[in-house]
Amino acid sequence: MPDRTSLRALALTVAATATLLLPAALAHPATASPASAGAHTGAGRNVVVRWNEAVLAAVRTGTLGPPQVARALAVVHTCAYDAWAAYDAVAVGTRLGGSLRRPEPERTEANRAEAISYAAHQAAADLYPAQRPAFDALMTELGYDPADTSGQPARTGLAACAAVLDHRHADGSNQLGGYADTTGYAPVNAPMVVADPLTSVDDPSRWQPLTYRNKAGVVVTPPFLAPHWGGVASFSGRARALADGVPAPAANGTTAFRAQAAEIVAGTAALTDHQKAIAEYWADGPNSETPPGHWCLFAQQVSARDGHGLDDDVKMFFALANSVMDAGIAAWEVKRDHDSVRPITAVRYLYQGRRIPTWGGRVIDGATWVPYQVPTFPTPPFAEYVSGHSTFSGAAAEVLRSFTGGDAFGGQAVIAKGSSQVEPGVTPAADVTLRWHTFSEAADQAGLSRRYGGIHFRAGDLQGRALGRAVGAAAWQRAQAYWSGQG
Question: Which of 258, 317, 367, 486 has its CA 20 to 30 A from that of 9?
Answer without folding.
Answer: 317
